[in-house]
Amino acid sequence: MSDRSNDMIPRTPLGGTEPRVDTHGPVTLTEVTNTAIASFASRLGQESTAQDVLAKFLGTPVPEAGRAVFGDALGAFWTGPDQWMVTAPHTSHEDLAAQLVPLANGSASITEQNDAWCRFDLLGDGLADVFERLCPFNIRACSGGEATRTSIDHLGCFVVVADPTHIMVMGPRSSAGSLHHALMTAIRSAH
User: Fold this and answer.
1) What burial class does residue 150 get, using C-beta atoms within 10 Å of its C-beta: 0-12 exposed, 13-18 middle, 19+ buried?
2) Least packed by Cβ within 10 Å: which of 50, 65, 82, 93?
3) Residues 6+ apart with CB under 8 A from 22
């Protein structure tokens, strides 16, 4: 009989038991695993109601095109017309989508995204130099609160700028290893 005691150990998108942290020069790249994610899309004819619901939940107006908002615990970024990704601490909002559904009361389509995406945070100086090597998003023009969908190493990703020294990248969880490699390669090339 084999020892199956390790069968139910949760794994990070990169396959570890703890989030990976890499530092090179002035930049630290961290695998973030404590974020709950839900997509929130207004239904046709319900756009105003859905925006009001999301704004009340966030405690701030919903982000406009190309923007992100950050609260004490909750955040959201624009992903398309009348569509947002909503983020929250996993410990308090593991069932984020289920919390949003009754509030929306049919005004929005909401789906859990926890297992679909991986997230990496880049912290440090010189991040614009890193992103020049990764994608066509002009980080030098960002001051904080910007968000876009772009391609990084042929992967559809979201890039969210908290401030010029803190940038979040969300990509497909199934390609976490490839995305991590692309990010580290750009960091090493820039610094």
Assistant:
1) middle
2) 65
3) 28, 29, 184, 187
> Taking the chain, what is the end-to-end CA distance rounded to the nearest angstrom?
51
Q: What is the rounded CA–CA span in Å between residue 67 and residue 146?
A: 4
Question: Is residue 78 included in any domain, yes or no?
Answer: yes
The answer as to whether 49 is a domain residue is yes
The C-alpha atoms of residue 58 and residue 68 are separated, in whole angstroms, by: 12
Phi/psi class of residue 56: alpha, beta or left (left: φ > 0; alpha: ψ in -120 to 50)? alpha
Query: What single DSSP character describes residue 67?
Result: B
In order, the DSSP letters of 13-52 are TTS-SS--EEEETTEEEEEE--EEEEEEEEPTT-HHHHHH
Query: How buried is 30 (Cβ within 10 angstroms: 0-12 exposed, 13-18 middle, 19+ buried)?
Result: middle
> What's the pTM?
0.92
CA–CA distance, 161 with 9 (Å, rounded to integer): 32
Final residue belonging to a domain, choices 88, 112, 136: 112
Residue range 101-152, pLDDT digits in tens: 999 999 999 999 999 999 999 999 999 999 999 999 999 999 999 999 999 9
Domain boundary among 64, 83, 112: 112
Separation of alpha carbons 115 and 117, rounded Å: 6
What is the distance between the alpha carbons of residues 126 and 123, in angstroms, rounded to a whole number? 9
